[in-house]
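Why run this: before we spend reagent on co-expression, it is cheaper to look at a predicted model of the complex and decide which construct boundaries make sense. The entries below are exactly what would go into the expression plan.
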Amino acid sequence: MLTTKDLLGIKELSREEIILILDTAAGFKDVLGRDIKKVPTLRGRTAVNLFFEPSTRTRTSFELAAKRLSTDVINFSVPTSSVVKGESLIDTALTVQALGADLIIIRHSSAGVPHLLSKNLRASIINAGDGTNEHPTQALLDAFTIKEKKGKIEGLTIAIVGDIAHSRVAKSNIYCLTKLGAKVRLIGPPTLIPKEIEAMRVAVFHRMEDGLKGVDVLIMLRIQMERQGKGFFPSIEEYSKNWGITSERLSHARHDVIVMHPGPMNRGIEITSEIADGPHSVILEQVTNGIAVRMAVMYLLAGVKRS
Amino acid sequence: MRILIKNGHVIDPSQGLDAIGDIFIENGKIKEVRVQKTPPHPPLAKGGLRGGDLSKKTGKRGTHPSFRTIDAKGLVVMPGLIDMHVHLREPGFEYKETIKTGTGAAVRGGFTTVCCMPNTYPVHDNASVTEFIIRRAAEEGYCTVLPIGAITKGQKGEELAEMGTMVKEGCIAFSDDGSPVMNSLIMRRALEYSKTFDVPIISHCEDVTLSDNGVVNEGLMSVTLGLKGIPAESEQIMIFRDIALAELTGARLHIAHVSTEGSVQLIRDAKNRGVHVTAETCPHYFSLTEDAVKGYDTNAKVNPPLRTDRDRQAIKEGLRDGTIDVIATDHAPHHTDEKLREFDMAPSGISGLETALGLSLRLVHEGVLTLKELVEKMSLHPARILRIYDKGTLKAGSEAEVVIVDSNRELKVDAGNFFSKGKNTPFHGWILKGMAVTTICKGKLYEQ
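The model came back. Tokens follow.
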């Protein structure tokens, strides 16, 4: 079982806890392959998706994961809530808890919001993305997918490409993959890679051709259109020319490289359709694995005693 | 009212006093100071009245004892502390703090004079607000309040505020604290214009375009927490600019809340060149590092942000070698509800008046400063920078603003017990050695 009632980030997890989650997820993946994709494991419990940022895939994935475990799940979406009436975050969360939520899955644009709720609520908190801090279940499903495809994680060379500075996915992946013994490289323009990040035991590259050499796994990040015109790079076109992945560039990596993307993709910008739909891509399998990993997290948190 | 403070360790750098002695106060003035001699004891009135007690939150005012003798054996007697950087929040934000509660917190912390920043509502950018603050402080204040007016109208950095009129009403300095004057030409004009009235311009040095809404120090900690960082350069670039402008204009520049190693070096160099520049830092910059924000503790969110240990050591060195003249609190009280929220949306600031002396005494216990130097930084230097020569001294004839300090008494910081409305402190639970036990100001005596 996990030692804390919440999943706040990969930073807070030990290597053993990560492995426990991945192993548990493997069991749930079998369930997802059956005709009847549902187990009664968490019947009678209530999960609330408390999303302060727009999301379809992550929210749906959590919703399905909860339903597969027979948990009642409610989506609390911001535009219809009292948040627009000026209610504080804490009051909203306390209200959700009072409605009977055992598990609150939170996404928020401010880093640290899951930690704030963790300190003030009895319910288990799952971080579904907080600002530019972490997105732990994405990293777990990425690790699960890599392990499934490569048989191991330790010793692999894994490159993450794109806007590292604003990416919670990159941060969680760095913590997760380094804890599991992979060699992590970051590739992107210096404006999008904070210089202090090298202290996290990663290697930084600014040119794709240099960073891709000998890579086993390539994780492409979504580039946010709004970074354009803010001085991070001159234009989306120039970004694409320098840091987009193409078949020609991919040839610098190992021949059996797998290509991942947390979605949603900007086809033709950070990734060409040829790669996204090609033999190296495992992008859709990541989506399926996401449900299994989220089931594992909910299951393991439910077993933690609450103080 | 007559008070005799006997056998205390009297420290008054304005007269070069650092010896055991007695202080006699009469009618709110220092009558006589005698050191290392047996003073002629005035006739003792038995059963002197106990003054106002700020340790109980009754809000009761100090009473007028007809005569009191205070045995200060083993205690330090110094001029009342002067905090040249506080936010009293009144008018406009009385839910955070009022002149009454803020000055009560000051007296508890050993301060007898505080200078309040202009970011009130309305902004203190005109003489009617000056008049309001001074009247309110006279009616309700536990200690003296000297207001600092805004440099520009509405703190917008566009047009100069009416400095002359505000000085006439009692303003002692000008600052757009928190909203730095980004336009270098306006800053130049402000410095030039201030020379007419011989008042310092206090600059919150921050290039806000470079800070870009950052909320913590930029570094490994900001990356680790996923919070937007403010680089040290954001402060240093503006310090460099303002020093250059002070040099150009010959005006008096005082740099607020210095927080980085590079800033200390810039000020040191400027002083060596003879520029009219003085500087302050705050207890949190020599007591804490950015580690305090771990776990998204909004009580450690402050602007400028808490920096690295290297910066912290440089601040201490700057205090030790005299580069940093003053310790001020930047007392910034906020309501609990405002701090209990998303880190990047919570307001910046620390409620500092009631922990400043204890934290600063750590520097004395560590050997960074002598007690005399501490008194200089917390009383004499602010008085000199602000040209309030009847304060920061125990000279016969000056206002009786005195604090008696037990430098060895330990106190556990309990935010819930603060007199200030602002319970926002990252020092809750710390055990501090040394505290003000008696504060005398405005003709009254407060004990705890």
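The mean pLDDT of chain A is 93. Chain A has two domains: 15-134+287-302, 136-283. Bring this page to Monday's planning discussion.
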